[in-house]
Design brief:
By secondary structure, this protein is of the alpha/beta class. The protein has helices at about 5-30, 50-65, 80-85, 100-105, 105-110, 145-155, 170-180, 195-200, 210-220, 270-285, 285-295, 305-325, and strands spanning about 40, 70, 95-100, 120-130, 130-135, 160-165, 185-190, 205-210, 225-230, 255-265, 300-305.
């Protein structure tokens, strides 16, 4: 046998062994959860959270889970779904996919939350970063955030901002625009991004803020346009859309978030570890990564312990901003 043939044989054998080990690990993660898991989402179908949940549900099934369901429970900025999960049996079968503001920001902006952000749920993993943006109808008379600010100043009545989550970083950004630019933007709450963006496209509301992932279908269909990306970096999928900050308006520099998976607080450590492993492994799938990126989401997995630390750090970082804004939701 030649050296090159022997090398190929060894490499092929190693690849098969790795594949068997990987499949075995996937099967072990699935076997540790007895039953059909459900990922509960706090918003209507069609938005970024729903897209993320469904792509991960399929990825888990590809790992060996017989079936993974997605349950949409829209309302109260994701809190209806969160409260449904916190009281579920702690067996790993009922999970919550939620945005970080529910744990980092809403505890500071709401006076009477009906959940404890630190005690009612426990993290399993962080999954994706959520780039966000401000959008308007395709035929709106402003093409970027600077033009919108100038247009809004000329209006005799308050202008409107569509939001799926009151008390969110997008809401804080609007309050900052009001304060720093003399505007009168009034937030309008929706049960999800999809109905909000329909009203943006028809100019029922002046602008909308949400995850870029929620906006891509209407943007690609020519119904809405981006006025600017939140945060500090342009997106590789939208390289021609400037950030709001680089347009000279810093009010949305921190208006970004991420999605994580959570389970009821009493869920056993072993069950959490099995789910953590399954979601982290799913996040390594290049097809999943590309599909999420195509939808404006960036896969950035993080284990449970690191998620808990990140929540505390981000909450304390935004606390001075919230206190300065004076925002208090009921």
């Amino acid at each position: 046998m030649s050296i090159s043939h022997l090398t190929r044989t060894i490499l092929t054998g190693a690849a098969i062994a790795c594949a068997i080990a990987s499949a075995s690990g996937h099967a072990q993660s699935a076997a540790a959860i007895a039953g059909v898991p459900t990922i509960t989402v706090g918003f209507a179908p069609g938005g970024a959270a729903d897209t993320t949940a469904r792509l991960y549900a399929q990825a888990l099934q590809d790992q060996g889970f017989e079936k993974v369901l997605v349950d949409n429970k829209p309302g109260a900025s994701g809190r209806i779904a969160l409260n449904a999960v916190k009281t579920a049996a702690p067996d790993g079968l009922t999970m919550y996919l939620g945005g970080s503001p529910l744990f980092t920001l809403l505890p500071l902006t709401y006076q009477n939350l009906n959940y404890d952000a630190d005690r009612d749920l426990r993290p399993v993993a962080a999954l994706v970063e959520i780039p966000t943006a401000v959008v308007a109808a395709a035929d709106a008379p402003y093409n970027n955030i600077v033009e919108y600010v100038e247009w809004a100043k000329r209006q005799p009545k308050p202008t409107t901002l569509g939001l799926a989550t009151l008390g969110s970083s997008g809401h804080l950004g609007a309050l900052s625009l009001n304060k720093n630019h003399g505007l009168r933007i009034e937030p309008v709450a929706y049960r999800g991004a999809a109905p909000m963006l329909i009203d943006v496209a028809s100019q029922e509301v002046s602008i909308g803020w949400d995850a870029v992932a929620s906006m891509m279908p209407l943007y690609q269909g020519g119904k809405i346009k981006f006025l600017g990306i939140s945060g500090t970096k342009r997106l590789s999928t939208l390289p021609d859309v400037p950030t709001i900050a680089e347009q000279g308006i810093p009010d949305y520099r921190t208006a970004t978030s991420w999605y994580g998976i959570y389970v009821p607080a009493a869920t056993p450590d072993a069950t959490v570890a099995a789910l953590e492993k399954a979601f982290i492994q799913a996040s390594e799938d290049p097809t999943l990564r590309q599909r999420l990126l195509d939808n404006g989401l960036v896969v950035s997995p993080m284990p449970a312990k690191a998620v808990s630390q990140r929540i505390v750090q981000e909450r304390e970082a935004v606390r001075p901003v919230v206190e300065e804004s004076g925002i208090k939701m009921d």
